[in-house]
């Protein structure tokens, strides 16, 4: 979808495009209502702003859609497809790293009561594992803004890719 099409599309279609990027109704509505956008940068800036801050309920709801790092999302939904693509840096043929990620995920969930979230796109499994191990040392108060920032990064990257992948002139995303 070109930016011009995004601007002119019925609100229902825009919501459908935005939901797999970040399933937070307030975020979706703020972006939908802010149309038209003069540029992709203006759209992405609005998306970042609408995602800051998240309420605790929004954060928990959004996290419920994300698989563990190292586990491929199942299903044929746009969100599952995005997640599989983002986690392409996790090579399941590396059993040591896969086991360390699985153990780190368990420890993180025990400590924080939710899935470990990181913008996986553009990161290797070892980079994600290092971040996971570092973040296990956080207090809940230190971890909360990190999780929110990772969720914002994922949402904006997904939105950008959704528009670019459907454009006739494909640009490389930079996030």
Automatic annotation (TrEMBL):
Domain (Oxo-4-hydroxy-4-carboxy-5-ureidoimidazoline decarboxylase): residue spans on this chain: 7-160
SUPFAM superfamilies: UraD-Like
EC number: 4.1.1.97
Enzyme class: lyase
Pathway info: Purine metabolism; urate degradation; (S)-allantoin from urate: step 3/3
Alphabetically ordered keywords of this record: Decarboxylase, Lyase, Purine metabolism
Record GO terms (molecular function): 2-oxo-4-hydroxy-4-carboxy-5-ureidoimidazoline decarboxylase activity
Record flagged with keyword Glycosyltransferase: no
Record field: compositional bias (Polar residues): 80-90
Region (Disordered): 55-102
Reaction(s) the record says it catalyses: 5-hydroxy-2-oxo-4-ureido-2,5-dihydro-1H-imidazole-5-carboxylate + H(+) = (S)-allantoin + CO2
Pfam family, one: OHCU_decarbox
Source organism superkingdom: Bacteria
Protein name: 2-oxo-4-hydroxy-4-carboxy-5-ureidoimidazoline decarboxylase
């Amino acid at each position: 979808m070109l930016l011009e099409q995004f601007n002119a599309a019925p609100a229902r279609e825009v919501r459908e495009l935005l939901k797999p990027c970040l399933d937070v109704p307030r975020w979706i509505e703020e972006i939908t209502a802010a149309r038209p956008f003069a540029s992709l940068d203006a759209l992405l800036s609005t998306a970042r702003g609408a995602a800051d801050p998240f309420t605790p309920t929004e954060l928990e709801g959004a996290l419920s859609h994300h698989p563990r790092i190292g586990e491929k999302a199942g299903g044929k939904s746009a969100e599952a497809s995005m997640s599989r693509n983002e986690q392409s840096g996790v090579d399941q043929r590396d059993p040591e790293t896969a086991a360390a990620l699985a153990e780190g995920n368990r420890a993180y969930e025990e400590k924080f009561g939710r899935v470990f979230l990181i913008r996986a796109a553009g990161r290797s499994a070892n980079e994600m594992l290092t971040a996971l191990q570092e973040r296990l040392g956080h207090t809940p108060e230190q971890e909360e803004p990190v999780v929110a920032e990772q969720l914002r990064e994922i949402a904006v990257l997904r939105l950008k890719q959704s528009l670019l992948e459907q454009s006739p002139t494909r640009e490389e995303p930079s996030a």
